[in-house]
Amino acid sequence: NAGVMQNPRHLVRRRGQEARLRCSPMKGHSHVYWYRQLPEEGLKFMVYLQKENIIDESGMPKERFSAEFPKEGPSILRIQQVVRGDSAAYFCASSTDSLAKNIQYFGAGTRLSVL
Amino acid sequence: AQTVTQSQPEMSVQEAETVTLSCTYDTSESDYYLFWYKQPPSRQMILVIRQEAYKQQNATENRFSVNFQKAAKSFSLKISDSQLGDAAMYFCAYSLYGNKLVFGAGTILRVKS
């Protein structure tokens, strides 16, 4: 059973370009969370999605950032017109439909570098 | 808003010794979950241990155990018989049922041979 898969592992963009980060949850998981980790800091929640629905986007910047989790395919975190301050590690986590365990399993992260 | 505080930016322990990492949190909820995650240099987030707030018994996982003090809102992690592979950043985290994780700033643990 594969874990949470994120790609790419490293992404380099120039200022003003778009960044697309992908996350495939663990098999059987329909809840996806995105977190951002700035250098030397802890992880900060960005958005929580279920299939085709955004449940909580309270941590998402109001502009340039969007997320989706379509019925088919991976979850996508999209950053438009990237700026140097977007450089960070972005982690995706997934959990099962059964919330009894309430455990989030993390991917290895995507490190975004903005030149 | 819930907050999680880790007051020790860095800790060191001798191999085979015991170390305790501190964590306090602030919440007005009565039912919640607490976690310790480990982040080695690979940056992969690995769940170490979890605690349900309604359970009085402290969680244990092999060499890892917690001291959960609900009234004091304290959740410390004890690592016994420390090994070189335990060296990592450790994050304390809080969540409500089925909800986002709120992380502390982390504690770097160094293990000396």
As a percent range, the share of strand residues of chain A is over 45%
Strand share of the residues of chain B? Answer: over 45%
Q: Count every helix of chain B, treating DSSP H or I runs of 4 or more residues as helices.
A: 0
Task: Characterize the largest beta sheet of chain B: strand count, sense, and whether it forms a barrel.
Answer: 6 strands, mixed
| Topology pattern of chain B, helix = H, strand = E | EEEEEEEEEEEE
Please summarize the sheet with the most strands of chain A: 7 strands, mixed
Which descriptor suits the 3D outline of chain B? globular
From the alpha carbons, calculate the radius of gyration of chain B and give it in angstroms.
13 Å
Please sum up the structure shown.
The complex is a heterodimer of chains A (115) and B (113). Chain A is built from no helices and eleven strands. Chain A has strands spanning 5-7, 10-13, 19-24, 29-37, 43-50, 53-56, 65-68, 75-79, 88-96, 105-106, 110-114.
